[in-house]
Amino acid sequence: MKSNLCKLLTLTGVLLLSAACQQPATVNTSEDAAIGTLGTNSTANMNVQMRSRTKGSMMESSPDAANAPLDLQFLDTMSAQHQTAIDMAKTVVAKSDNAQLKAFAEKIIRDQNEEITRMKNWRGIWFAESLPAINMEIPGMMDSIRSLNMKKLEAGGELFNLRFLEMMIPHHQGAVTMSREALGKAKHAEIKSLASQIIKSHEVEIKKMQEWKTILSK
User: Which pTM value belongs to this model?
Assistant: First the structure.
């Protein structure tokens, strides 16, 4: 009797173990999880991190980003910075009642998507195997993000247009600071050329936004 009971218990244990082994593994499908599980060929890795990091008003540096080559830090960080501008601009296109502001937002989307594409292409050529290097400590990056509050912007309301300008002006100013840093320290001529282009275009746009802000503040 005891022997039969032991055999039954042993068989039950084997069946339970077999069933457990056949259960599908739990998969964390969140973007933050993907950051940790993607391979080291990291153009795709950086893309996932950029989407994940730019959803809210707070962003974080990539692990060990400060030790990456400065050119890589600029490419990844400016790409993330540009993505937040695109997110804000899309909200303006959807919610603003000001035709000039909507046209301006559409220009931001076009210009900065094109610049992101260029930066991703360079990254693929120069740093294809490198891990993401978004660095919040790059001069100007925190200035870009500090005033950003996507939930507040997406809420719309009577002060929507003014709220957008109050966020986008320091965001542009931060990009100018980042670009000046790259202009002086980057190794690749292409990055220096892009930095010069960003400075020139953003300074014109900052002036225009400040004019609109003055009008809307009255």
Answer: 0.75
